[in-house]
Amino acid sequence: MLTAITNAKVVLPEGLVDGSILMEEGRILAAGRVIPPQDAVIRDARGQYVGPGFVDIHCHGGGTALGHEQPLEAARHHLAHGTTSLLISLAYSLTKDQWVEGIARIRQAMAQPGTSLAGIHFEGPYTNPQYGARSQRAWQIREEDYRLLFSLAEGLVRQCTYAPEMPGARDFARYVKSRQVALAAGHTEMSPAVLADAVTDGVTLIIHLFDAMGCHLGRESIRQTGVLQDSAADAALARTDLSYELICDSRAVHVKPANMQLAYRAAGADKLILITDATVQPYDPAGFPADDPRSSIDLNYNSEGQLSGSRLTMDQACRNMKKYTCAPVMDLFKMAAGNPARAVGLDAVVGSLEAGKEANIVLCDEDMNLSAVFLGGTQVH
Ligand SMILES: [Zn+2]
């Protein structure tokens, strides 16, 4: 069935165009200034923005479903908020058995037709225990362990995060690159020199810039000279060859407003990637007063009261980014769809409205309030 979404502000990689999108059998046939043929089923967008479905490359779950336990349910939760390609993140806080079982469940789920699951993000094992995503009972990682995990997840892993300062990390990084997986630095206090070596080893991404990052001088970072020393985030942002993932929550807890603005200005809309880092909440937000961050719509705290990921959805992340940086809709779609797809090698099939790509499409207003989501040409919300 030939379908046309007409009367739209079409978000194309080169800019906004008043026009239409033509799709058939789950693929985009044309987008932009195209005249729909007479036999096409017409869907009038009534002047709304029509952009590519979101691509979330860092997510642990959604709604009541943990990604490693119920990947389909987690993906469905995010699909309702416009995420048409989702990577499930496995963190070092999970046991080795949970990794193994999680990989098997995700592989099984991805074999189902009509799912938005697009792969796995290995968030570890080489992360720095000082900077989260790792429990006290963390298992001792050995080369044979990560080789096992990568072979179990063959063809599924699209991103792997590590802390380049950890012992053994360089061998690990080279191994990850040999598997053609995007290499990301995070949960780290790497110095500029360590980061430079890591880029040589293949790092192209920084996960949640400013969050779970420290300084290579630790607590001495300001005491020595009274001058704030170069943190891992500064070192990363100073480079021109990296892309940066950002968690934009509504109260700017993961990233302070000034840092969000700094990242937007320094790196620009072509280098930033919005992620949700979402997980499942263990409490009812309604049980907390308005000034308690646990009452927020998109933050998450663990049982020890520590910040632990978010309850974000990508549409909400876009709204938050807009609120703090005034980024226009065009830039929001770059950060929530085009850039993440490119970063993990999904851009041949998703991430933009171009002929031949999957018809993953969202309709929204200028505040990123969604009115429709299409997955593979089918309207799912
Ligand atoms: Zn994470």
Bound ligands: zinc ion
Topology pattern, helix = H, strand = E: EEEEEEEEHEHEHEHEHEHEHEEEHHEEE
Helix count, DSSP H or I runs of 4 or more residues:
9
Question: How much is the average pLDDT?
Answer: 93
Summary?
The chain has 381 residues and is an alpha/beta fold. It has helices spanning 71-79, 96-110, 143-152, 169-178, 192-201, 232-237, 257-266, 314-325, 329-343, and strands at residues 3-12, 15-24, 27-32, 41-44, 49-52, 54-56, 61-62, 65-66, 83-91, 117-123, 157-162, 182-185, 203-206, 243-247, 272-275, 299-301, 307-310, 361-364, 370-375, 378-379.
Written description of the protein model:
- The chain has nine helices and 20 strands.
- The protein is globular.
- It has two domains: 3-49 and 366-379, Urease, subunit C, domain 1, CATH 2.30.40.10; 54-348, Alpha-Beta Barrel (TIM Barrel), CATH 3.20.20.140.
- The strands form four sheets. Strands 1, 2, 3, 4, 5, 18, 19 and 20 form an eight-stranded mixed β-sheet that branches.
- The protein is of the alpha/beta class and 381 residues long.
- The longest helix is centred in the first third of the chain and has 15 residues, at 96-110.
- The mean pLDDT is 93.
- It binds zinc ion.
- Zinc ion (ZN) binds next to strand 9.
SSE layout and pairing:
Blueprint: E1 3-12, E2 15-24, E3 27-32, E4 41-44, E5 49-52, E6 54-56, E7 61-62, E8 65-66, H1 71-79, E9 83-91, H2 96-110, E10 117-123, H3 143-152, E11 157-162, H4 169-178, E12 182-185, H5 192-201, E13 203-206, H6 232-237, E14 243-247, H7 257-266, E15 272-275, E16 299-301, E17 307-310, H8 314-325, H9 329-343, E18 361-364, E19 370-375, E20 378-379
Parallel strand pairs: 1-4, 1-5, 6-9, 9-10, 10-11, 11-12, 12-13, 13-14, 14-15
Antiparallel strand pairs: 1-2, 2-3, 5-18, 7-8, 16-17, 18-19, 19-20
Helix pairs in contact: 8-9
The chain binds zinc ion.
The site of zinc ion (ZN) has 8 residues, from β9.
